[in-house]
């Protein structure tokens, strides 16, 4: 209600997030941020642009009280979409990240650019008054050099390590470079350590 018929425009702002427990360090610098709402019956609209970890980013969002919402963050090689909806005592949010170049993700996270490839992350995050949980997580990563990783699972209630189920599949060779199928133990060779 506070924004109804109003516009908030912020220029040259910075948000830095540092987590001492896991070392996560995010640096968001916004050149422009604008929040608008035509009237109380319309959603609050968010538009922002700037950089995150030195990479250009454009953010837009659509929020309405107790209604579904959507937020997108677009980088040159990465798109992140969060679509939320109200549930009893909270929200359920589906997050999808399409990464056409892993190097950009590593740059945003301030990690060493040691691999190149593509990735896809899909997850559901649920937050209620009593708990936060990730009941669905799927990650697919394919390196340009051939290996790939698929991870799926249920992280359960966050902070409870006994409530985690994860299935991992790792492919060490690309489909076109797979070694021949073996028929006996004698066909197996150690090729590196």
List the helices and strands and how they pair.
Elements: E1 6-18, E2 25-37, E3 44-52, E4 55-63, E5 69-74, E6 78-87, E7 90-99, H1 102-108, E8 117-128, E9 132-143, E10 148-154, E11 156-157, E12 165-171
Antiparallel strand pairs: 1-2, 2-3, 3-4, 4-5, 5-6, 6-7, 7-8, 8-9, 9-10, 9-11, 10-12
Notes on the structure:
- With 193 residues, the protein is mainly beta.
- The protein contains one helix and twelve strands; from the N terminus they run βββββββαβββββ.
- Strands 1, 2, 3, 4, 5, 6, 7, 8, 9, 10, 11 and 12 form a twelve-stranded antiparallel beta sheet that branches.
- It is globular, with a radius of gyration of 21 Å.
- The model has no long low-confidence stretch (mean pLDDT 88).
Features:
single chain, 193 residues, mainly beta, 12-stranded antiparallel β-sheet, 1 helix, 12 strands
Number of helices: 1
What is the N-to-C succession of helices and strands? EEEEEEEHEEEEE
Strand content: over 45%
- Head-to-tail CA distance between termini: 63 Å
């Amino acid at each position: 209600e506070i924004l109804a018929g109003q516009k908030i425009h912020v220029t040259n702002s910075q948000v830095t997030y540092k987590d001492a427990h896991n070392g996560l360090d995010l640096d968001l610098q916004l050149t422009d941020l604008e929040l608008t709402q035509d009237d109380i019956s319309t959603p609050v609209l968010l538009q922002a642009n700037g950089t995150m970890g030195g990479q250009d980013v454009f953010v837009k969002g659509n929020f309405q009280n107790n209604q579904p919402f959507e937020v997108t963050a677009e980088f040159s090689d990465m798109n992140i979409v969060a679509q939320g909806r109200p549930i009893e005592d909270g929200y359920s949010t589906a997050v999808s990240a399409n990464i056409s170049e892993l190097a950009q993700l590593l740059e945003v996270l301030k990690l060493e650019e040691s691999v190149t490839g593509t990735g896809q992350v899909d997850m559901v995050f649920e937050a209620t008054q009593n708990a936060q949980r990730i009941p669905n997580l799927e990650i697919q990563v394919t390196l340009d050099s051939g290996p790939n990783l698929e991870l799926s699972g249920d992280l359960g209630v966050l902070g409870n390590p006994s409530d985690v189920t994860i299935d991992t599949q790792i492919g060490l060779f690309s489909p076109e470079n797979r070694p021949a199928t073996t028929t006996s133990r004698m066909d197996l060779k150690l090729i590196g350590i």
